[in-house]
Amino acid sequence: MSRLQGKRVIVTGAGSGIGRASAKLFAAEGAAVVVVDKVPPAVEETAAEIKAAGGKAISVAADAGAEADVQGFIQKAAKELGGIDVIFANAGISGGLVPLFEQTVELWREILRVNLIGPFLAIRHGAPLMVKQGKGSIICTASVAGLRANAGGHPYSASKAGVISLVQTAANALSGTGVRVNAICPGLIETGMTRPLFERAREHGTAGKIGQLNPLQRAGEPKEIAAVALFLASDEASYVNGQAIAVDGGLSSTHPFAQTRR
Ligand SMILES: NC(=O)c1ccc[n+]([C@@H]2O[C@H](COP(=O)([O-])OP(=O)(O)OC[C@H]3O[C@@H](n4cnc5c(N)ncnc54)[C@H](O)[C@@H]3O)[C@@H](O)[C@H]2O)c1
């Protein structure tokens, strides 16, 4: 397996869920991976799992929404790996489901800071190195919540809609440089972020209803998002640019519906 052989990759939010699954898959495909998360033991565990499987990983505890931290892990990756080919700006927070009239500016600021300004900073400080190389791939995690309402809280949805716009505008700003910028819009995936929902459903015996609104009628797994991130990171996606790709079992393809007989 060597779809990322020789690639130098940064993954943020790599201490859990989609980020951890992607970092492990990237390393298994030959990449050297700098794994970043705000939770030190979690990201160290990801790096340890990669190394135990024979891969190359460097763990960094950092805030993916803070400019000095982003500059720090980008510089560290460039120095220790000799350059950066791929950044997966994946770290995100949900902010919960706070009713509209109870939302504060502080709540909005924090969600936009991590979910939208974080990916902007990854592009702002990572793309210049890729431009010099004449090649690179930046992948940001958006969400089906950025496509329309009711897949998360209001500021969360707005932040993810912003990520979709960010990859379009950044891909165009990087016109002619060889640097590609894309987003993935996951549907409902069982991770640290959504675990309470899954646990509640299991407790109430309604686990079978999870994901029933999408045509595959099930939730997704982190590895199913990692597989698309791997494609976008690799040279197989050399002509894919400025796109927001839904990986959601078909959720975003439908209106709410009542299943009819086949
Ligand atoms: N799980 C889903 O159903 C789903 C659906 C759509 C989009 N997403 C998005 O996928 C991405 C990954 O989330 P996940 O579902 O794997 O959740 P997760 O909670 O399992 O993982 C997110 C990781 O990001 C880290 N993180 C959060 N804020 C950070 C910060 N400021 N700096 C560094 N690390 C930070 C967390 O510590 C955690 O390890 C997020 O952007 C999320 O919004 C998830």
CATH-assigned fold name: Rossmann fold
Total count of helical runs of at least 4 residues? 7
Second-tier CATH architecture: 3-Layer(aba) Sandwich
Could you say how many structural domains there are in total? 1
H/E element sequence:
EHEHEHEHEHEHHE
How many angstroms does the end-to-end distance come to? 40 Å
Widest sheet: strand ordering: 3-2-1-4-5-6-7
Cα-atom Rg, whole angstroms?
18 Å
Number of strands: 7
* Major beta sheet summary: 7 strands, parallel
Q: Could you estimate the helical fraction of the residues in percent?
A: 40-55%
Query: Which band does the percent of strand residues land in?
Result: 5-15%
What is the averaged pLDDT score?
97
Class from helix and strand fractions: alpha/beta
CATH top level is: Alpha Beta
Kindly summarize this structure in a few lines.
The protein is 42% helix and 15% strand. It has helices at 17-28, 40-52, 67-81, 105-133, 154-173, 195-203, 222-233, and strands at residues 8-12, 32-37, 56-61, 86-89, 136-141, 179-186, 244-247.
